[in-house]
Design goal:
three-stranded mixed beta sheet, about 160 residues, binds zinc ion, alpha/beta
């Protein structure tokens, strides 16, 4: 275990938490999605993990909280505190470049100005359903290669 001054360094905790995946899209981590906002030692000495859920009411939020708490316990931190920070609200702009690459490789078009087909790269696509496999995704079909794909809606 990496410790700094007898405590786990914030950097090493961030590395552990990068193993926590999004329950709905397990190819991306909570770091990729920008859900993990901060890791810090609070004034009372307790380790705090600050999370901003992708949108309130998302059933994945509780799963993510439990996964973070489990990851902390597995690394010997029994008294970690998960803080849900709702403001500023999460936006798809917080998804990092690695996350966007991982989404594309998984066949999901990442949120951009236009839904770009992850198979052929064409931006000519039509929406088949505004709500896809999860509410945050829409189902599109590429006009170029005819492939249906999920588009992670930008918001
Ligand atoms: Zn295509």
């Amino acid at each position: 275990m990496v410790t700094v001054g007898g405590r786990n360094s914030v950097e090493s905790i961030r590395v552990w938490l990068d193993d926590v995946r999004d329950p709905e899209i397990p190819v991306v981590s909570i770091t990729d999605l920008g859900i993990l906002r901060d890791v810090r030692h609070a004034s009372d000495g307790v380790l705090e993990v600050i999370l901003t859920p992708t949108y309130s009411g998302c059933p994945a939020t509780e799963t993510i909280r439990e996964d973070v708490e489990r990851a902390l316990r597995e690394h010997g931190i029994e008294n970690g505190r998960v803080v849900m920070q709702l403001s500023p609200a999460w936006t798809t702009a917080w998804i990092n470049e690695r996350g966007r690459e991982r989404l594309r490789a998984f066949g999901i078009a990442p949120p951009e100005d236009a839904a770009r087909c992850p198979r052929c790269g064409s931006v000519s696509a039509r929406e088949l359903a505004h709500f896809g496999s999860t509410p945050c995704k829409a189902l599109y079909r590429c006009n170029q290669c005819d492939e249906p794909f999920d588009y992670f809606k930008r918001f």
